[in-house]
Design goal:
Elements lengths: L1 H34 L2 E2 L8 E2 L3 H11 L1 H18 L6 H23 L3 H31 L5 H11 L6 H35 L4
Antiparallel strand pairs: 1-2
Length: 206
Amino acid sequence: MEKTEQAVVIHRSRLTTRQITKISALAVMAFVLMVLEIGIPFFPGFLKLDLSDLPALIGAFAMGPIAGILIQFVKVVLHGIFRSWSGGVGELANFMVGVFYVVPAALVYHYKKDQKHAVIGMLVGTVFMTLLGSFANYYVLIPMYSRFMPIELIVDMGTVVNPRIVDVKTLVLYGIAPFNVFKGLTIGVLTLLIYKRISPLLKEKH
């Protein structure tokens, strides 16, 4: 009986180790994608599109929301160590908005794992990311960014691409919120295209 219990403990330990390995690998991929950001002409210049939420969403679909959160966390820690210029504010923003997206999407998908719920989950995640991200930017993130860059300059970067942007409120409404919708839908489409092909590599085999 003791040998059987020991075998179960060892088996569970191996599964946990494999999960940590997969989460680490996905986090490194997310970090690389976070570095490879690009500007989108019709959004303010400080909003750069990166696909770093893609590995986090794939990991959350395969292993659960906690895995998605851990991938987001490790990703921004790596970015903070090797690439940060904003005293951690950019990393905090990326982490918060990414979690707002990945966790609701994964919760819906894990309620019933089929393509319909994957699509619904990503749409729900996009809505949460847009709404909660807007509040976070208005009340927390933009004020924190203003320590490194005058808030007037931040607003002016939005005015250049959209004359309706004249203050922080309109910057969030006409700049940041649409950007998060665009990003959420982009990540969602890419996830649908590749998830089924790579999910067998991530799911645990008992």
